[in-house]
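lol forgot to send this yesterday, sorry. struct tokens for the thing we talked abt
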């Protein structure tokens, strides 16, 4: 079977889907980890800055809260700290009405007085953007650009006697945040790439394994399309969805092969059934044509034979057309009918067809939704079959029972019965229990097939078994039965005396209709 490019196949698409899902998962995990790492490092810096600011703020005197006293206290605290660098912090104290005290020379700001601290905070005449940002930073946490690195800044106001006397700004390099995030990105890049490549390889291998039964199914389907209906998948994989699909495919092929076999047998049997009367007609005409002197008796004899065979062909064609309508779902037209009246009238008509001991059991009162003509056809077919397999005076019994909104009608006899191995097959088209018997005896083997088609069209079922008298019992069940509101007294079994046979045939074997 030709295949397309590998990248368009199921394996490649499944592996690519796994890769896309993995990339999305890794991307989500990376973003969450990257941001979480930055937030965690930043929160740690903020905690340290908050603690340092609290310690620094406690060094500012409450009295006297004068600029000079505040400047001296701030300078004393800063003298204990290291100069701002790679590992130290930046301290800037803005004194209200005073000036700036810082451990970073070069930050401009106004000065007051001539103390050592004020001389230390004296800045250049021109203030830089960084100094202006530090001086004007609002209380709280913020991140500023200081030189080539980001600076995390905590600004805390100093309140004394209800007024702000100074503002403490403590900054620490935030380069550790960038370094931590860079490490996360580098780790994800290396590990993620390796994981992605491994996932693609494993995904392709897994897709190959999963798609192997599908490819086998495709090959089997191609061979079936070519005409080999004996092909099967025969999957031995674990009981998963693919195994279920393979088993369903095999069951479908079993039914398909059986349907084709039945169709071929049906066509062959129909051809043979039609060929037999045609052969008889042609033979009779040839015999008549070879006679040098044709008499009226010869013409009458040939005419009778030809008429008989034509009637046989007409009946066969009508049966085949009926079965065809059943296959198309156009067989029955249900309507409401009174069950007791229907069965009683039908039984009375059956008693006139042969010299048999007919019996009718109790018939429940109620209404059945069914096609009256078709159900009568089923009963006649079953009764005719029972009559053909019983001798003169033999028993043919009709029983009717209703339960749970369904009604069962059964035909029983005391004939030879139906072998157990044949009970499921007698409803097949052209099936005969005795395949060696002459075709002139009985029908073409379509009577029970027609009965099953009619019952199935009503949504019912039909089956064959043994009767209490040792013969055959064929029963069919129909839905849509509504019993009468008030029950009637049970009717006694009605035995009938044998009547003169009007359309019977001499009993011969046990063929099906």
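and heres what i got for the seq, position by position
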């Amino acid at each position: 079977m030709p295949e397309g490019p590998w990248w368009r196949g199921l394996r490649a698409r499944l592996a690519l889907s796994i890769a896309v899902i993995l990339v999305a998962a890794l991307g989500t995990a990376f973003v969450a980890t990257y941001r979480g790492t930055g937030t965690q490092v930043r929160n740690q810096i903020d905690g340290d800055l908050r603690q340092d600011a609290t310690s620094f703020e406690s060094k500012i005197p409450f009295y006297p809260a004068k600029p000079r006293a505040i400047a001296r206290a701030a300078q004393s605290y800063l003298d204990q700290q290291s100069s701002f660098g790679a590992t130290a912090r930046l301290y800037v104290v803005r004194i209200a009405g005073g000036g700036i005290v810082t451990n970073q020379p070069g930050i401009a700001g106004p000065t007051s007085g001539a103390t050592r601290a004020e001389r230390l905070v004296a800045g250049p005449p021109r203030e830089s953007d960084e100094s202006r940002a530090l001086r004007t930073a609002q209380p709280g946490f913020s991140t500023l650009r200081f030189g080539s690195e980001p600076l995390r800044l905590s600004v805390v106001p100093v309140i004394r006697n209800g007024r702000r006397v100074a503002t403490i700004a403590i900054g620490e390099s935030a380069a550790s945040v960038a370094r931590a995030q860079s490490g996360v990105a580098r780790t994800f890049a290396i590990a993620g790439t390796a994981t992605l490549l491994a996932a693609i390889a494993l995904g392709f291998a897994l897709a190959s394994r999963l798609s192997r039964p599908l490819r086998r199914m495709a090959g089997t389907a191609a061979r079936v399309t070519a005409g080999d209906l004996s092909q099967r998948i025969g999957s031995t994989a674990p009981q998963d969805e693919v195994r279920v699909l393979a088993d369903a495919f095999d069951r479908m092929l079993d039914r398909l092969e059986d349907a084709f076999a039945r169709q071929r047998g049906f066509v062959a049997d129909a051809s043979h059934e039609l060929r037999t009367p045609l052969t008889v007609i042609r033979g009779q005409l040839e015999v008549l044509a070879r006679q040098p002197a044709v008499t009226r008796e010869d013409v009458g004899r040939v005419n009778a034979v030809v008429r008989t065979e034509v009637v046989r062909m007409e009946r066969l064609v009508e049966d085949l057309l009926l079965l065809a309508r059943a296959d198309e779902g156009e067989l029955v037209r249900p309507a409401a009918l009174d069950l007791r009246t229907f069965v009683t009238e039908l039984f009375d008509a059956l008693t006139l067809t042969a010299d048999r001991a007919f019996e009718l059991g109790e018939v429940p009162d109620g209404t059945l939704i069914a096609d009256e003509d078709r159900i009568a056809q089923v009963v006649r077919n079953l009764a005719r079959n029972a009559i053909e397999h019983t001798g003169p005076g033999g028993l043919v019994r009709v029983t009717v029972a209703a339960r749970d909104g369904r009604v069962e009608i059964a035909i029983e006899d005391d004939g030879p019965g139906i072998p157990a191995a044949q009970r499921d097959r007698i409803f097949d088209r052209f099936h005969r229990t005795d395949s060696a018997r002459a075709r002139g005896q009985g029908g073409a083997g379509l009577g029970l097939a027609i009965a099953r088609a009619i019952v199935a069209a009503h949504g019912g079922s039909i089956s064959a078994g043994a009767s209490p008298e040792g013969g055959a019992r064929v029963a069919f069940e129909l839905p849509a039965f509504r019993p009468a509101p008030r029950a009637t007294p049970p009717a006694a079994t009605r035995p009938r005396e044998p009547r003169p046979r009007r359309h019977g045939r001499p009993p011969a074997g046990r063929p099906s209709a």
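The chain has three domains: 13-180, 241-327, 335-495. anyway ping me if u want another try
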